């Protein structure tokens, strides 16, 4: 498949680590010009917190100015929040913090990127399989990713000329997942994807190769959610 991303101007948030970093590398391999926003400083990273409206607006304008506009925006900045904590012990502040980064942060990114995105632009948000299936101890995260899927559809119908889709991967071996699951990922009893796997899904949704695909959630979970309870 030809991605036709060579020369395109791409903005990736959360590009200092994990899936975002893999996306930065994958877009560069396709010949795209990539700008990065992250709260963690790094080589070529425009430092901003996606929950800080003014700082994010300024960082998006800086990256778009440097690249001469934007063709693609990828929202990888995200947090997992209090994974493994029962509802009874989870505070309102913890829920608010997860929603602020995973939902409001992605909303603000799209809002500030829109003036720089031309017709035919593509936005890829980071959802998760947690929008569709759940494990105990992840209520705030699951709620945030369900919101990303709904926001993807809402943005897709609101913004003519710009496609908005999201990827919804199952567990990916990144610093975030290592922080939550630890050594389990050294020899997992469940399928695990690499950040580069997700980057390829993002490339597809960012590319004109997916031209008719809009407002969709690409659930990539090795078929785990497809299994019915039927005993066969
Ligand atoms: N790792 C998984 O298993 C998995 C599965 C499905 C979806 N996701 C989603 O993929 C995205 C990336 O996750 P990852 O696993 O690569 O995590 P990661 O922790 O490796 O990387 C996340 C990056 O986002 C940045 N970031 C976090 N909060 C920020 C903020 N407020 N402002 C700016 N930057 C911020 C971090 O500095 C980091 O560089 C997240 O939205 C996550 O929910 C991850």
From TrEMBL:
<protein>
    <submittedName>
        <fullName>SDR family oxidoreductase</fullName>
    </submittedName>
</protein>
<comment type="similarity">
    <text>Belongs to the short-chain dehydrogenases/reductases (SDR) family.</text>
</comment>
<keyword id="KW-0560">Oxidoreductase</keyword>
<dbReference type="InterPro" id="IPR002347">
    <property type="entry name" value="SDR_fam"/>
</dbReference>
<dbReference type="Pfam" id="PF13561">
    <property type="entry name" value="adh_short_C2"/>
</dbReference>
<dbReference type="InterPro" id="IPR020904">
    <property type="entry name" value="Sc_DH/Rdtase_CS"/>
</dbReference>
<dbReference type="GO" id="GO:0016491">
    <property type="term" value="F:oxidoreductase activity"/>
</dbReference>
<dbReference type="InterPro" id="IPR036291">
    <property type="entry name" value="NAD(P)-bd_dom_sf"/>
</dbReference>
């Amino acid at each position: 498949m030809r991605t036709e991303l060579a020369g395109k101007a791409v903005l990736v948030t959360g590009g200092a680590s994990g899936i975002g970093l893999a996306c930065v590398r994958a877009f560069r391999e396709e010949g795209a010009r990539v700008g990065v926003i992250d709260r963690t400083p790094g080589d070529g990273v425009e430092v901003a917190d996606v929950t800080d409206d003014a700082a994010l607006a300024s960082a998006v304008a800086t990256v778009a100015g440097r690249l001469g506009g934007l063709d693609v925006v990828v929202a990888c900045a995200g947090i997992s929040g209090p994974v493994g904590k029962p509802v009874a012990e989870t505070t309102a502040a913890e829920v608010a913090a997860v929603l602020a980064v995973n939902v409001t942060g992605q909303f603000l990114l799209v809002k500030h990127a829109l003036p720089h995105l031309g017709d035919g632009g593509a936005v890829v948000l980071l959802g998760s399989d947690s929008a569709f299936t759940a494990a105990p101890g992840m209520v705030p995260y699951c709620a945030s990713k369900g919101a990303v899927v709904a926001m993807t559809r809402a943005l897709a119908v609101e913004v003519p000329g710009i496609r908005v889709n999201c990827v919804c991967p199952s567990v990916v071996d990144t610093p975030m997942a290592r922080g939550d699951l630890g050594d389990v990922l050294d020899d997992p009893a469940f399928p695990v994807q690499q950040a580069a796997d997700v980057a390829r899904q993002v490339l597809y949704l960012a590319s004109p190769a997916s031209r008719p695909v809009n407002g969709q959630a690409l659930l990539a979970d090795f078929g785990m959610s497809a299994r019915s309870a039927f005993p066969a």
